[in-house]
Structures are given as structure tokens and as C-alpha cells.
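Appendix B. Chain record.
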Amino acid sequence: MDMNRRMTAEFLGTAWLTFGGCGSAVLAAAFPELGIGFLGVALAFGLTVLTMAYAVGHISGGHFNPAVTLGLWAGGRIPASYILPYVAAQVVGAVVAAAVLYLIASGKPGFEVAGFASNGYGTLSPGGYSAMACFLMEVVATFFFLVIIMGATAPRAPGGFAPIAIGLGLTLIHLIAIPVTNTSVNPARSTGPALMAGGAYLGQLWMFWLAPLLGGVLGGVMARILGSEPASADRPHIATPGAPAE
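C-alpha cells predicted for this chain:
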């Protein structure tokens, strides 16, 4: 599989995740009469992963998240050579999607950027949670996300259903974590909106790289210990576990 194709798939998947998930918060959740609330935003994030895992997962594995990429490496699913190109594509995708979302949102009269679906702790946490609480939430949530991903994509797992489990897992994570950190578990998703919001949100971005990456590695290692069989280097897929690379 050509790495340029893989990177393009990761770019598109992460862009859709950022545009769809953060867009639901910035655009739709701003109108209480629409009634989507936290549940709608959580479902939007889950649906972005589910849809893109089916759309391009057979090309790149459907990571769309630096913490997932690092966790799958720690779990023995992908070679180290995938990490930098995948993460670069993911970050660029998230930043481009956030910029497009900003252009759309700013077309409304009286637009104020505010938090722009960014993540934060302390005074920037939706519920005012401390830095320690937010760090722990992100580590634990990302840990379980990797356990879900690696278990759902193990060779002995039911074929074709992994994107559903992963998408619903991400939805559940958002239902738990939105009040605490506005839910990251994805450093790329955090970077795009933080660049648009600027200021203190950029100053707190370090946590939403460190905590998810740590949680991803721990989750990948735990799944490997539990016995999720590692895929070979040419079979790193999430959406179609066990299928040969194209």
C-alpha cells in the first residue's frame, strides 16, 4: 500500500472527524431549539469515526488520531515507520477542517470565536474540573478506547463490525468526558480548534497531547497483554481486520 494513499486517507478521516464532531458543537449545539445537546455532539463524533472507518479504513486502517496510531504501534499492530507520516497527515487534516469550520461559523452575524470546541482544564473545563482530574480523564478514556479498538479488530473478532464498536465507544467516551475536558482523546482534534481559539486554549494544548498519547500507549500494551493477536505490518487495518493491504 502506497504511503501517500494512506496519508491521504488519514487526512480525510481526521478532517471529517474534526469538521463533523467539532462542527456539531460549534454550529448545531449553539441553537438550543435544535435539541442536540451533549448527546448529539457525542453521537456526531462517534458517527464521524464509524463512517470514515468504512469509507477509508481499508486504505490506512482508519486511525484518524495520533493516540490511536501510537497505541497500535505499542500493541504491535503497525511498524514504527507509520507513526510520523500518519500523525502529520492527521494534524494537517484537523487544522484544515478547523479552519474551514471557522470560515463557515464566522459567516453568522455577531460571531464570537470563544472556545470553538477546544479542550481545556481548570477555568477552561466545561465543568471547572482541575488539571489533575482532566489529565486522568483523558488518560483513562484513551486507554479504554485503544482496548476497544484492538479487541474489535483482532483477527478472531466478528468481521466487518469493528467500526460500529469503535464509533459507539467514542460516543460513550464523549458522554462521559464532555463535562470534564470537552473530550479530546485525540491530539489532532484538539490542535485544530485550539489554533482557531488561540490564547489560553493554546497554552493548555500540551495536556491534550500528553494525556491521550500516554493513555493510547497504555491501552495498546494492555490489549497486547490480553492476547489481541497482532496483525502483520501489511495488515494494520481497523475497518477490515485481517484483510490484506491493497
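Further analysis of this model is presented in Appendix C.
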